[in-house]
Amino acid sequence: MRPVLAVSLALACLAGPALAAPAHPRDREIKDADTRAWWHTTEALSGDAMEGRDLASPGYDRAARLVADRFKAAGLKPAGENGTWFQEVPLHEVEVVKAGTGFTLIRDDGAEVPLAFLHQISVRAADDLPSMVQAPLAFRGYCAPEAMTEVRGRIAVCFNTRRNGQTTSAARAKAAQAAGALAILQVDDPGFTLEPPRWPAAYARTIAFADAAPSPGFVGMTLSAEAFATLIEGSGRDGAAILADGGAQRPLESFDIPARLRATFALATRDYSSRNVLAVLPGTDPTLAPEHLVVSAHLDGYGFGEPVAGDGLYNGALDDAAYVALLVRLAERQKGHGYRRSVLFAAFTGEEKGLLGANWFVRHPTVDPQGLVADINLDQLRPLFPLKILTALAVDDTSLGDTARQVAGGMDIQIRPDGETERGLLQRADHWPFMGVGVPAIGFIFGYDPGTEAEARYREWYQVRYHRPQDDLGQPMDFGAAAKFNSFFYKLTQAVADADTRPTWKPESAYRPRP
Predict the structure, then answer these.
(1) Could you give the residue ranges of the DSSP H alpha helices within 334-374?
(2) Cα separation of 95 and 127, whole Å?
């Protein structure tokens, strides 16, 4: 909740009953009862009492219990472990603790310049991260293998491009390590306006499955574009020009930076489990009931993190409380009514830390994996403007795309493929693990034409609210667009769950299962 809103509510309470804030302050903006019920559940899941639903936090556990209770009240059956509503996901966490971390540039003339942790520079937490790294800095452009000369014992500084056809972040790190660099420092691309870099970072944490191999200790750091000029001061190079050239994918020259970076790290580790919430609406057709359509969204959020504009609680209203709420609403609408196929309702944990809950489920399914026919995933949805276009991820890979087009065609919604593949959205949400085990899957994004007001609102959301405390219950919303998408989801679910045949992969799909 924003501090201003909190103060306003407090003053309203002090003023007496006549001025008390309404229990659901946005009801006047919502025109229909179904959307109102959906938003009330969103309020319950992303209000301050849920503390941003960080993994294994008391707020997350309260949210998981709320969802399970609502599924039960709607008549669903538990589909977790041992007859429960939950599936435990065992996790191991490493965090770089702010109080023990320092980043300092030491120039060749002896001057020391601090860099602000989480605001200008961050580091990937790892189990065997050394307590300190201190080494000279060498800028090597895009850090392709052929550019990684004379970096042994140094920190390789790389332009962190996300453009198609350029080196990936993982490839740059591999090249730096192979060339003998002690660490890599990747500098943001400010020209990547499709999804611009944002600072501060909420925290520096890495979470993996408890039985995973220890994370590698090669030091991977990220630097804000704003701090780049400070980093290369004294080199005789123009930092702004280098960033502009990188953003335009022009060639970048290598040079050495007349400074060392000293970074000290203090780590905190812990082991715990977090829970997927799983429930099933049994199918009504004896032949099709053993098959399960999965409808999914992620319950976890960021919790408490580095404050932005004075607010340190990352509520995660649209990412993704609103769409766990939509699963609840679908269950409530179907109370007493089934589809031909069974529908598995999955509120996954750990999406924000690497699709952990969904990956765990597909490796340890609580239903017959041969009966998993498809996943419709709800994430990346931002109802900020009228809904005329839906981008559908993997739309041309399976017959789910054809079904989505049929449903959308009757609702004046145009279905389009992803036109911004550089963002990697296909691989960044919980449909991806299902595709990895051969289950057809689909996800959606509110679409727009370039240069429109819709695009401006979408970009503003990613600049200001994505993974920020400002993704809260008071943010701008188009409830008419939300209602239209919710209706589309209800119809799509019914179309897939009641179809005579299960969804199939298309032969031309690069992701289809191979014999």
Answers:
(1) 356-363
(2) 9
In angstroms, the Cα distances linking 443 to 266, 431, 446 are 39, 7, 11
389 and 448 Cβ atoms separated by less than 8 Å: yes
**Is the pLDDT assigned to residue 414 strictly greater than 70?**
yes
Residue-wise pLDDT for 212-224, tens only, equals: 887 666 899 999 9
Element (H, E) at 343: strand 342-348
Query: Do 31 and 483 contact (CB within 8 A), yes or no?
Result: yes
Tens-digit pLDDT profile for residues 39-82: 999 999 999 999 999 999 999 999 999 999 999 999 999 999 99
Say how far apart CA 443 and CA 176 lie, in whole Å. Answer: 35
Residues of the chain by 3-state class (helix, strand, coil), percent to 5: 35, 25, 40
Neighbours of 396 (CB within 10 A): 12
Going by C-alpha positions, the residue among 423, 419, 412, 420 that lies closest to residue 389 is 412
User: What's phi and psi for 247, nearest 5 deg?
Assistant: -65, -30
Q: State the Cα–Cα distance between residues 426 and 498, nearest whole angstrom.
A: 26
In this structure, what is the dihedral angle of CA atoms 144, 147, 149, 155, given to the nearest 10 degrees? -60
Give me the residues paired with residue 184 across strands: 156, 220
Q: Cβ of 297: how many Cβ atoms within 10 Å? A: 26
Helix (H, G, I), strand (E, B) or coil at 111: coil
| Percentage of the chain lying above the pLDDT 90 cut | 90
> Residue 161 corresponds to which tokens in the numbers above?
């491009």
CB 325 within 8 A of CB 35: no
pLDDT tens readout for residues 114-158 = 999 999 999 999 998 999 999 999 999 999 999 999 999 999 999
Strand partners, 376: 295, 442
388's tokens: 């005329």
Using a 10 angstrom Cβ sphere, with 0-12 exposed, 13-18 middle and 19 or more buried, the burial of residue 265 is buried
